[in-house]
Amino acid sequence: MSETKNVVAAGIGTNSSGTKVLISLAAAVIVLFGLSRISSIVGPVFLALILTICVYPLKQKMLARGVPAVVATLVTILTVFAMIGALIAALWVSAVQFTRLIPQFGPQIAQLRDDLRVFLHDDLGIGDDQIRSVLASVDLRVLLDTAYGLLGSALNVGSGTIFLLLLVLFMSIDGAYYPTILAVVKQKRAPVVEALSNFAKLSRSFMIMTTIFGAIVALLNLTLLLVVGVPGAGLWAMLAFVCGFIPFIGFWISLVPAAIMALLAGGLPAFIAVVAFYGVINSLIQSIIQPKFVAGSVNLNMTLTFLSVIFWSALLGPLGALMAVPLSLFARAILVDAHPESAWLKPLLGDVSVSKAMLKEQKAAKRATS
Fold it and tell me: CA-based Rg of the chain, rounded to a whole angstrom?
């Protein structure tokens, strides 16, 4: 009889734990669906948070040197405003430049369509219907629609920008109270405060390193495009800088328009030069060197970094792609780092610091025995 009770109790316990897992998964799905529905709010809020985190050390340094708190807060706010303003101005100028460049290449686009038609029909033997569908995408009108769509998007950033600037303003002002709030919370929820502090540190490290590598890539691209004579070199360099915040995928996004413009303006030699340069230099820096530095600085492995881009871009759109790594760090901080009983999940989620220490000890032991 007692054995039967034990079996029944074990079954109930198993069913209870399975029910909890199902409830957790259902809750996660509901939360993610809700986030996707309000992505236009979540994205700017998180971007404002990251920008505020990035400039917070500047405020701390000024306060340590005796600068009044009001002045330090004002300087940090103006710093973020200047960063956002410079980016928006660059995007606006780039959009205007793009709309002016496309109409200049009408004859080249027509010739490219003719050459492509001959190649597909004569060399590859593709049917006329398939050829027409392919050539429909190589049309000046399609490119013009795309260009004016980008310009319209640039015109419509006003309300979103105001929302972002107000968020930064309020977060920077409230930032004066964050240390006190965290100190109070730490008395009862120390792991939560430590997890959030670590998230801020890692996010700041990611943004700084990505900005440095993005600036290097943009400068190299600008030099090459100017030498080759590709129109809109500044536009494509700016695109490469922004896309640098999108691990792995950003490289391809920045390559395609620059290569097409090189083909239209300079023919096949310019096209090959741009593709080869991007393929060697950009892939070396953005796909090999940068991910290793970033993965080491934020404790995310390369696989998780790549999946983060796919996941957050699908959930929140372009801002999700740009903020994929900080978003993943925030999710890990809230769901794993803040709970000591979940520490065993850290290596699976990219924190390989313990594994590296074990490998180092094993190598040292092998050297000692050999």
Answer: 26
Average pLDDT across the chain, whole number: 75
Sequence letter at residue 364? A
Residue 63: how many CB atoms within 10 A of its CB?
15
For residue 346, pLDDT beyond 80: no
pLDDT at position 164: 79
Please write down the HEC assignment for all residues of the chain: CHHHHHHHHHHHHHHHHHHHHHHHHHHHHHHHHHHHHCHHHHHHHHHHHHHHHHHHHHHHHHHHCCCCHHHHHHHHHHHHHHHHHHHHHHHHHHHHHHHHHHHHHHHHHHHHHHHHHHHHHHHCCCCHHHHHHHHCCCCHHHHHHHHHHHHHHHHCCHHHHHHHHHHHHHHHHHCCCHHHHHHHHHCCCHHHHHHHHHHHHHHHHHHHHHHHHHHHHHHHHHHHHHHHCCCCHHHHHHHHHHHCCCCCHHHHHHHHHHHHHHHHHHHHHHHHHHHHHHHHHHHHHHHHHHHHHHHHHHCCCHHHHHHHHHHHHHHHCHHHHHCHHHHHHHHHHHHHHCCHHHHHHCHHHCCCHHHHHHHHHHHHHHHHHC
CA distance 218 to 161: 24
CA pair distance 40, 36, nearest whole angstrom:
9
| Calpha distance 253→294 (Å, rounded) | 20
- Do 164 and 44 touch, CB atoms closer than 8 A? yes
Residue type, 10: A
Task: Please give the Cα distance from 83 to 89 (Å, whole number).
Answer: 10
pLDDT for residue 49: 87
What is the mean pLDDT of the segment spanning 171-178?
A: 79
pLDDT of residue 18: 59
* Encoded amino acid at 275, one letter: V
Amino acid identity, position 100: R
CA angle 146, 151, 152 (to 5 degrees): 95
